[in-house]
Amino acid sequence: MRIRMASLLAGALVASTLAACSSSGGDSETGPIRIGLTVPLTGNYQALGTGDQQGAQIAVEQINADGGIDGRKIELVIKDDKTQPDQSVLAFNAHKNEGAVAVIGSSFSNSALAAIPLAERASMPYLSLAAADQQVDPVRKFAFQIPARSSTYAEQTLKYLQATKITKIALAHDTKSSYAVAGYDAVKEKASQYGVTVVVDRTFDTGTQDFSAVFAPVRTSGAQALFFWATGPPAVIATKQFAASGLSIPLILTGAQGTPLFSKPAGAAADKVVLSTSIGVIGKDLPAGDLKQAVDKLAGDYQKKYGTYPPQFAADGYCGVIVLAEAIRKAGSTDGKKVQAALEKLSLLTPNGRYEYSADDHSGLSTDNIAIARITGGAFVPTTWMTEQLTTNLPK
């Protein structure tokens, strides 16, 4: 009986292996092109991953409706990394074994950083939806970034501070977030170049529920603004507590809050918050032209499907798909090395602005592609300074 059971198990294993081989045809040059998408659909970063998934699915629907990539439809396979780096690793391996030609993921920087070494070993393009600089600095051959780097958000915000004559800031960041740490490091490194001095420097972690220890020293510091780096629930909690703290200086947040999934739970406390975000988030206020057309192509379908204007993360997921699709088209192949080479030569205008990758730059977006917005009545609108910038520095 044991011999028969062992024989049956061996046969099942062979059949399973053959099925896996036959189903991993995404890297052949015929049939559907299988693309893996790994995003946090549960856990602390669920708000980010949900938008990513929605935007990516719209991009796939648009491309497939237009005939696909050289006649081949895209098959998007979605996996939840649960806001956990180890789950991101498992998801990457599953995508690879199931025949994905590339992986788009994760909007949680820690998860993306865990998967990138696997992509390098597999020679498989990995287009990250996270912003931490460490993913692409130093350059890793197969890792490319879709959102701007944390340091790019930081630098555009410093330009805004300089232009609005804010010279002293309080700075706070989540020590458990690679995204926040990279942004914090960039502010510390570049602040003096823009005439900005950090007069208060505080830390917290993702589980913090009481931010009074962050706000207390700001009160007597002479800081003219609080620049706050966080993602997920801490940003909502801190924004509400900041509004109740009696502090009257501006609260400045980052692209991680460029979504109604932040502004709605934060409610009235988010009014007048300033944040750096992808340029597509202020798409309604962009001047007519190619960039607005690119944003409207996403926004029209997104609003029909979800009833709201697309948040930053939907734009990221959407751009991840269209950037990868364009690279596959230009490569004329789904071979990982050929797609990687095409990505390094890619120039593409998208709802996030113009991507200009190169062998030395796998982030692709400059500060001109970052908007400085203000939340007003739950809506994201350009600041006065940003409106002026759009007349001279609009991505084309």
TrEMBL record:
Task: Cite the entry's keywords alphabetically.
Answer: Amino-acid transport, Signal, Transport
Q: Coiled-coil segments, which residues?
A: none
GO BP term, example = amino acid transport
Q: Which residues form the Leucine-binding protein domain?
A: 32-378
Which Gene3D superfamilies does the record match to this protein?
A: 3.40.50.2300
State a single Pfam family of this protein: Peripla_BP_6
Range of residues in the leader sequence: 1-19
The text of the family note is: Belongs to the leucine-binding protein family.
Q: What is this protein called?
A: Amino acid/amide ABC transporter substrate-binding protein, HAAT family
Organism placement in taxonomy = Bacteria, Bacillati, Actinomycetota, Actinomycetes, Cryptosporangiales
